[in-house]
Each structure stands twice: as C-alpha cells, then as structure tokens.
TrEMBL record, chain A:
<feature type="compositionally biased region" description="Basic residues">
    <location>
        <begin position="281"/>
        <end position="290"/>
    </location>
</feature>
<dbReference type="InterPro" id="IPR018261">
    <property type="entry name" value="Ribosomal_bL27_CS"/>
</dbReference>
<dbReference type="Pfam" id="PF01016">
    <property type="entry name" value="Ribosomal_L27"/>
</dbReference>
<keyword id="KW-0496">Mitochondrion</keyword>
<dbReference type="GO" id="GO:0006412">
    <property type="term" value="P:translation"/>
</dbReference>
<feature type="region of interest" description="Disordered">
    <location>
        <begin position="1"/>
        <end position="77"/>
    </location>
</feature>
<dbReference type="GO" id="GO:0003735">
    <property type="term" value="F:structural constituent of ribosome"/>
</dbReference>
<keyword id="KW-0687">Ribonucleoprotein</keyword>
<comment type="similarity">
    <text>Belongs to the bacterial ribosomal protein bL27 family.</text>
</comment>
UniProtKB/TrEMBL annotation, chain B:
<comment type="similarity">
    <text>Belongs to the phosphatidylethanolamine-binding protein family. Mitochondrion-specific ribosomal protein mL38 subfamily.</text>
</comment>
<comment type="function">
    <text>Component of the mitochondrial ribosome (mitoribosome), a dedicated translation machinery responsible for the synthesis of mitochondrial genome-encoded proteins, including at least some of the essential transmembrane subunits of the mitochondrial respiratory chain. The mitoribosomes are attached to the mitochondrial inner membrane and translation products are cotranslationally integrated into the membrane.</text>
</comment>
<dbReference type="InterPro" id="IPR008914">
    <property type="entry name" value="PEBP"/>
</dbReference>
<dbReference type="Pfam" id="PF01161">
    <property type="entry name" value="PBP"/>
</dbReference>
<protein>
    <recommendedName>
        <fullName>Large ribosomal subunit protein mL38</fullName>
    </recommendedName>
</protein>
<dbReference type="InterPro" id="IPR035810">
    <property type="entry name" value="PEBP_euk"/>
</dbReference>
<dbReference type="GO" id="GO:0005739">
    <property type="term" value="C:mitochondrion"/>
</dbReference>
<keyword id="KW-0496">Mitochondrion</keyword>
<dbReference type="InterPro" id="IPR036610">
    <property type="entry name" value="PEBP-like_sf"/>
</dbReference>
Amino acid sequence: MLLPRIAPSFRAASNSASRAARSPCSACTASTRPTTTAQRPRSPPILNFVRNAHHKSEGRANGPKQGPGKRLGAKKTGEQYVIPGNIIFRQRGTQWHPGENVGIGRDHTIFALEPGYVKYYRNPDLHPKRRYIGVVLQRNDVLPRPPNATRHRRLGMIAVPRIDPDTTAISELESDALAGIPSLPTAHEAVSSGTATDPSLSKTSTYAALQPREHYRAANWEIGRAPDRAAESGTGPERQRVSPHKFVKKDRFAALKARKARAAKIAEKRGAMGQRGPKGKDKKKRRRGR
Amino acid sequence: MPIGSRRRRAAAAVGGNVPFEQLPYQCFQEARKVLQADREEKVRLIDVERQRIARLEAQEPFPGTPAQKQLRLQSMRKHVEYLKVQADINDPMVKKIFEDGKGDMSKPVYRHLADRKWRSYRRLLIMQRIIQMNVVPDLLPHIDPVIDLSISFRGKTAHPGDFVESTLSEEAPILKIQPFDRGERLVTIAVVDPDVPVAEEDTFKHRCHFLACNVRISPTSPMVKLADLDQESQVVHSWLPPFAQKGTPYHRLAVFVLQQPGLERVDLEVANSKAAQRDGFYLRGFATRHRLAPTGVGLFRTQWDEGTAGVMHRAGVEGADIEFKRKRIEPMPYKRKDGSRFR
C-alpha cells in the first residue's frame, strides 16, 4: 500500500534531477535527494498517523459563559404599596403584561402609574394565556374586574384659587354675549390687558394689530416712531431727527468734512482729559494725548 | 367628426331633456328590461307572501302554540321587507336619487341604503371613539347602536370625540336622530358628563347636562332641536352648557338616545326623582329603572378655554375661580439597611 505512494516521490526526484540542469539554485538539493531515498531500508515502514488533540477556540461549540446577572425579576410583590414610577418587574420580553394603572417600558419593565397596591393576575376574557400586573387604588380591590364594570379612577388633583380670575374679562364677555357674538379681543382690550404699559406709547398702541405670533401689540415701526410723535404733541423732549441727509458715496467733500469734524471732536475730548490729568495711564498714552 | 355612437349623437341633438329611462342606448334599454322583469317577479313574490300571511292569520285552529304562530308571522313579515328592498335595489334611478341625497326615508329601499352607508363608516367611527374613550363601560355596560346620531352646534357638526369650544356649546345642540326601521317611537335623550372632579373625595362623578323623555322620532322626521322641546311634557333637565374647570382633564360629553319600550311614556314626576338629579346622575340606573334600551350614541369633548369663565358665569355655575393642580405624591422612604452588612 505504501509502495505506490513512495514511487511518485522517486519520480519526482528523478524529474527534479533532470530539471536541476536548468535551475542552478536547486541543483544542490536535487543532487542529494536521490541518494537518501536509495539508502532507505526496504523493511515495512512504521505507520504513525497521529491525530493530535485539538479544540476549537471559537464558535458555537463553546457555549456562552456565565455572564454577570442582569438583576431581573419582581421588584415588588403582590399587594405591596407603590407610587407612580416605581418599578414592579424587570424582564426580558413580556413574561408579564401591563394591566390596570401600569405602564411598560422600552425594555419591557413594568412600572406603576398610580399610587396603589400591586396585583398579579390573569384575565381570560382579555387573553387566555397572558399574565398581567396591575395596580389597584384600594387594597381589597380584585383584579380582573368583571367585564363591562365601570373603571375606578382617582382625580389626583387639588383645587386651588385660579391665578388670574379676570372679572373684567367676564363682564366684557357678558356684554358680547348680549350681542350674541363671541368676539376676539380688540386692540383696545389688548392695551387694557397690559400689552402697552408705557404711557408714552399709548398713542402708538391704537395701531395694535394681530402680529405673526398671534398676539396683539403695536408693530415695531410704530414703536420706533413713538418719540417723534411725543415731540410733535409736546409731551416728550425735543428730539433730533435721525440722519436728515442721505449718504452719497461719491460726495468726497462731505466725507472730508465729516472726518475733520470727527477728528476735532476726538481732539477736544482728549484735551478735556488732559486737563483733568491722566489717571493710571502709561507715559506713552499720556504723551499721545497731548 | 362628432364623438359617440349614432344613437348618442341623436340624443345629443334632441337635447338634455330626454328622461333617464328613455335614453336611446340599446344596451341600456335591454338591461332595463331585465331589471324590470326582475322587479315584476319580486312584486309577485311580495303578493304571494302577503296572501300567505293573511291565510296564516286567519287560520284558527293553528297546529302549535300562539308563540310559534307569532314567530312565523314575524319571520314572514321580515321576508316581505327583504323582498321590498330587493325589488328596487337594482334600479339605477334609485341609486342615483340616493346618491344625490334625495332618498325618501319612508321607503324601505332608501332606509336600507342609508343604513348600509352608515354602517360602512360612521358607525365604525363612533364605536371606535366610545371604546377608546371608555364611554362604554363608564356610562353604560354595553351598547349596540342602530340609530345614526349626529350633533351640531350653531350649524357646525361636532364629529365623534371633537373638542367643542365652550362658547359654541353654550346653546343646546340640534340632534339628527336617524332610525333605519319603519315607524315612530318615543326616545329619551340624555347628555352626561362623567368627568366631574370632586376634590374632597379625590374622584370623578357624573353630571347630567340634559335629559328629555318622550321625544317622538321617525325615519322621516329625524331632526330634534333640544331647545325647542316641551318643558312640561318632555324636558327633565334643561340644557346646562358643558364646562371644564381649569386644570381638569378633558370632559367627555356623551349623548345617548334610549328607546322607550313600545310607545310607553315616561312619567316625568318619576323621572325627576331624587335619583335623577343633575349631580351624581347615573345613566345605568336610570336606564334600568325606566326599561330604556340604548340605541344611539354621540360624543364630544370640552376643556378649559378663554370662554369657559364667561359661560360658567352666565349659566350661574360657581367654580370658575378654582383651578385644579396635580397633587404631590409623597416619595416612599428609603429602607434603612443593616449597617453590619456594609463591610
């Protein structure tokens, strides 16, 4: 059985020997090989097919090791008191389904929505196999409730005085109701309800209109005109008209005049400062000031 | 080249005055002949069935109990109604008139078509809303509507579950109570708000906003203006405008049409007993006491808005100066752990 397998090696050796003439680099090895095979004893060779022990290091064969515990399970027992937000059950998937007054989180955590007592129950009318967790308001309530029974609800609120019980608003509405038409607040109402607090703006606010964000107030340009209007009517101080001359880019003479005026103004300011005496300024700046 | 067949062009030349039945299309006329033959057959069947009913009624020694006889008569009459609908349902004119909304509700075929149309969408919608918003089972244990009920305030329709402005719902609505079966009947109309907050008891109670009995309706006269009902013989509680105090969750206003048994009248003295007061009105008990069968339901909602204070003031209701705020729920104390376990 072995002999036919040895024979090809002989053939290979002879072939390589013949090839050795062409390839000088392998000449030395090729010349030795036939001699070694010729020296091999003719006795039956020892068969040592050894299958070494090995083990796949990765893959399914080596199941997952025990990871850290995920702390799943019931956090509240049956009949235990809970408040909204309390976690009742942590789980993977829905081993338990949310019932009455109970919510379910993104990771299927069951939590309470009302203060009350935890109940673990089944409801064959709703689903034959599912298990539910619910919270009842009274400890002796039973879940599931009979089909078509009224819900038990809690208000969970307290009555406090309303922050701005606007009595004037009511009387106005009443007068509107006499006319039979519920009306939107007019500009005048918007003013009276405190949109325009500044008395100087009182004239402006007659122009109050519905602005983009659905509130009533004077437009910005109206507010900007307010000092002018006050000056005209004599109620406010005299006001210089802003930018009476139009700016002309090509008018270099006007630019020169303006520059000189500005320089003179600065010089005057510095002179004034110099008279007062420099306060905490370095020599360089002082010199420049003079 | 003019468009259409020779007959069509001829019809167009005559003008639009050709009656629908006489349109000169051959296929159309042939189809009409088939339909007319079918109708004649159905009319004949109706005659036969009526004669059978008459014979059965006259049959004096009936082999069986009187109840059995009544059951048979009932089923035969039902079959006559079925044949009446079938006689006309394939008529293209009937279809056209119904689609134009001019169907005569005294005729079985139009009632049948209207019922089918209502069940295809509007009934599904109201059922969805009353289940989602827990009108059933909060107000009644069960309801299977067979009457189309639509609510409109000042000409504006309130769709099932809509939020209606408090100023709009200040006036009583107009109801369209459309039955789809023959005959007149007396109904009780109730508007109930099951979301009235009671801060002292930390719960919700019911309040009746309107209650009227002995309202006569029929398929041909479905409009009921709640404000126009008779104060002496019909209205138990007149219209109280719906309102929701500031901060409270939205209030559901459920409108119920409950059919009275036969044509029996509800005694208003009895109806207006202590059990049927506005505050703490429970429809379950009322319906049981007067043997009323819920047949129609409508729903709208209300919440605090700018007009609510005025509405409450004008209706003479106190409580507009109160606001509801969430009650603080005390956090649970931490359980003190045993110190010896810490090391």
